Amino acid sequence: MKRWFRIFMISVFALAAVSLVATQLFQMRRTFSISDNMFNVGVNNAMDAVLKQINGEVFQTASHPATAFNYQELDSLVYDELVFNGIDLHPVVGLYDGSQGSFLYSSDPSHEDDLETSPYRYSFHPIGVVSANQYFIILSFPTTSLFLQRNTNIYAYMSLFLVFVIVVMFVISLRTMAVQRRLDQMKIEFINNMTHEIKTPISTIALACEMLRDESISQDVASRRNFLEIIADENQRMRMLVETILQSAKMSNKNFRINPRPVDINDIVEKAGHSFDLTLANRGGTLETNLDTSCDPTIEADELHLTNLVYNLVDNGIKYSTDAPHITLSTSFSGKNVVLRVQDRGIGISKADQRHIFEKFYRVPTGNIHNVKGFGIGLNYVAQVVRLHHGHIAVESEPGQGTTFVITLPVNFK
Fold first, then answer.
1. In 14, 97, 143, 211, which residue has its Cα 20 to 30 A from 192's Cα atom?
2. What is the pTM of this model?
3. d(CA 138, CA 302)
4. CA-to-CA distance for 160 and 25, rounded, in angstroms?
5. How far apart are CA 82 and CA 90, in angstroms?
6. SS3 state of residue 72
7. Burial of 161 (0-12, 13-18, 19+ CB in 10 A)
8. Binning pLDDT at 50, 70 and 90, where does residue 263 land?
9. Domain 149-251 - what CATH class?
């Protein structure tokens, strides 16, 4: 995915998300306003019915409201009419004498201040006769706003939650596409490297075979032996390349299992290190071993994969050294674990690259070193071997200061 297209998608999505949120907020306010109006209409309709009944025979028992009303029946009548009009709230009911400026009755005296400021004020005339005094039935709904908000906020919260889910899914999609793009690029590089790595020994073998067909050379025993050794070495090189790829593919299978058995960790480290004697000699390098012999070096591990682990780390240390390589292999025992350290004085690894070096196909940029070959699966293989042994691997490195891999393995495999 091109950068401009990603920016375009993010911009369009951001605009859509903001528009959606703004629409939801506007709709919420509109819904709240409509609900408020419907609430007021319901209250007014309920009180119209109440006032009609108040003017009936039930309340015409005296000429003064203070003695004419059965207040409990008034509360019940108001609540029943409110419920009938879809308002399931129990308000505070007050009977107010406007000329005296006092309440003749209040269902909750502690809320008389709320009653005085309530907009739900309804004038009535006792026994249906216009009186010099002004009497009002006043209702107070302490939870009116909460009641309305509760009905509208449910939908608002659901809308905001859905917007949040959409944003999260969009971010995940972008990250997935970015990761997929990086994986595709690494796979392309892997295929190119593999093609180059295999093409080189094939060309060398073909050239050696062509030389052996020359009768003048085939008669020379020393030359013939030299070319045969070249063919054998290149054939071994291709076998190792193919084996590395196959082993990495096998370990990607979750059902893959190693075969642990008692092995001498010091012996494995020493043998794997010595296999590079010729390579180090050709580059003027050295290999130093500091093996812990203070206790029994026997651990339970898969000898083949543990050997390949050490081989890969030493090979990396040599490849990523600009000058004469210097590799240090050391072991130490700590409690029920053995600690293997592989240290080099190479170009080092930056903090940014350290987060990815154990990913399959990832290759650390080599800067001015242009002869480093590989598939980007060596350290991934190392990490998988450590995981299968229930161990832990860490890297300590600074650019230009070399790299140290610290591997901790349990002595007894579980």
1. 211
2. 0.51
3. 88
4. 9
5. 8
6. helix
7. exposed
8. very high
9. mainly alpha
